[in-house]
Design a protein that fits this description.
It is a single chain. This protein is of the alpha/beta class and 383 residues long. The protein has two domains: 259 residues, Acetylglutamate kinase-like (Carbamate kinase, 3-Layer(aba) Sandwich), CATH 3.40.1160.10; 109 residues, PUA domain (Archaeosine Trna-guanine Transglycosylase, Chain: A, domain 4), CATH 2.30.130. The chain is 37% helix and 20% strand. The protein has an eight-stranded mixed sheet, sandwiched between helices. A five-stranded mixed sheet has the order 14-13-15-16-17, with helices on both faces. A two-stranded antiparallel sheet has the order 2-3. A hairpin with a 5-residue loop joins strand 15 and strand 16. The protein starts with 12 loop residues before the first strand and ends in a 10-residue tail after the last strand. The C terminus is likely disordered. Bound molecules: glutamic acid. The site of glutamic acid has 16 residues, from helix 3 and strand 6. Glutamic acid (GLU) binds next to helix 3 and strand 6.
């Protein structure tokens, strides 16, 4: 595996975009439940491993149109708005049910273009999603198609997913649809087209290769996927285009199946470190033993075992100071646990977290990607 391709379990915040043609059986006009159950079990596994999961799900219009008896083919705007109003209820319910089977809570977020483009609304949407993630819920996001008119809509969930992924600092975005990767030319029109396993940079040549493909149920063709890749990779989010036409699509990616990885020049981790180093307000502090100080200096994460004392009232995701045994600040970082829980796991082995807290969280108190040594942004390597 090259540097761009990494085990999925190494990503800490993963956004998955699921296309309409995967979710909805075109002929039966119903949800493909078995397939979705397989995908959700893949997601649940990543979630159990400590990753934050966001879902961007299409399918509202596809599910609602048959219920309303609307014809096949492109819909007028008011018909797609009406179809979405009906279909979104079913869509949210199915995700909630499927996630619930794994003990995961779902939260529905419907966004319009302005929610990701206007600063005040952007911050608002980001805060809501952030809060859901802190509580270990999975936001299930779609465009608010019922009120989105042509001037104020994305119209495709590829770009929407990329904006959301960049907005929340996802380190990975997976676009699942009926195409299995990015080709040197549109494969339907060109039998010599070859799948590119890795796209290092989105050059004008790459953009020219994208062509203009799309299927009836899903709006996004390769063009919107390349636009999505630009948005995502500029924000430090790596992106994968993979086929969802297989059972357990994330397992297939993890095993090195056909797909395309888009590299990013930055990482959310790097962006996060700069932000942590610059954020003045810490909500609390932990004092750690000298062994843990030495480990941090070697670029390791802070484990609960090294914590001697916890001060302040902070919640998961807050910036806290890390002090050595003599009280001097050695680092600061974003805590993976609330203060109350930190008190309970301090000095204990990570393996005991589940039995102490009654829920399994991250093995680290502060992950190394979320940690900055005092006086430096660069001294702890990021991936
Ligand atoms: N938001 C649309 C829906 O839920 C789908 C857009 C897309 O397919 O990209 O039906």
């Amino acid at each position: 595996m090259g540097a761009v391709m990494q085990p999925l379990s190494s990503f800490r915040r993963v956004t998955i975009k699921v296309g309409s043609s995967l979710l909805v059986d075109h002929d039966a006009q119903d949800v493909r439940r078995d397939w979705l159950a397989g995908l959700v079990s893949d997601l649940a596994e990543l979630h159990r491993g400590g990753a934050d999961i966001l879902v961007v799900s299409s399918g509202a219009i596809a599910l609602g149109r048959s219920v309303l008896g609307l014809p096949r083919g492109p819909l007028k705007l008011e018909d797609s708005q009406a179809a979405a109003a009906v279909g979104q209820i079913a869509l949210a319910r199915i995700w909630a049910e499927m996630l619930h089977r794994h003990g995961i809570v779902a939260g529905q977020i419907l966004v319009t273009l302005g929610d990701t483009e206007e600063r005040r609304r952007y911050l608002n949407a980001r805060a809501t999603i952030g809060r859901l993630l802190e509580r270990r819920a999975v936001p299930v996001i779609n465009e608010n198609d019922t009120v989105a008119t042509s001037e104020i809509r994305y119209g495709d969930n590829d770009r929407l997913a990329a904006r959301v992924a960049a907005m929340v600092g996802s380190d990975l975005l997976v676009l699942l649809s009926d195409v299995d990767g990015f080709y040197t030319a549109p494969p339907a029109a060109n039998p010599d087209a070859k799948l590119m396993p890795v796209v290092e940079r989105i050059t004008p040549e790459i953009e020219a290769m994208a062509g203009d493909a799309g299927s009836e149920l899903s709006r996004g063709g390769m063009r919107t996927k390349i636009e999505a890749a630009k948005i995502a990779t500029q924000g430090g989010t790596r992106m994968v285009i993979a086929s969802g036409l297989v059972a357990h699509p994330l397992k297939v990616i993890a095993k090195g199946g056909r797909c395309t990885w888009f590299a990013t020049p930055s990482t959310p981790a790097r962006a996060r470190k700069t932000w942590i180093a610059g954020s003045l307000e810490t909500k609390g502090a932990v004092t750690i033993d000298s062994g843990a100080v030495a480990a941090l200096k070697r670029g390791k994460s802070l484990l609960p075992a090294g914590i001697l004392r916890v001060e302040g009232t902070f919640t998961r995701g807050d910036a806290i100071a890390v002090r050595g045994p003599d009280g001097t600040e050695v680092a600061r970082g974003l805590t993976a646990y609330d203060a109350d829980d930190a008190v309970r796991i301090a000095g204990r082995s990570s393996a005991d977290i589940l039995s102490i807290l009654g829920f399994g969280g991250r093995t680290e108190m502060i992950h190394r990607d979320d940690l900055v040594l005092a006086g430096s942004v660069r001294s702890i390597s990021s991936n």
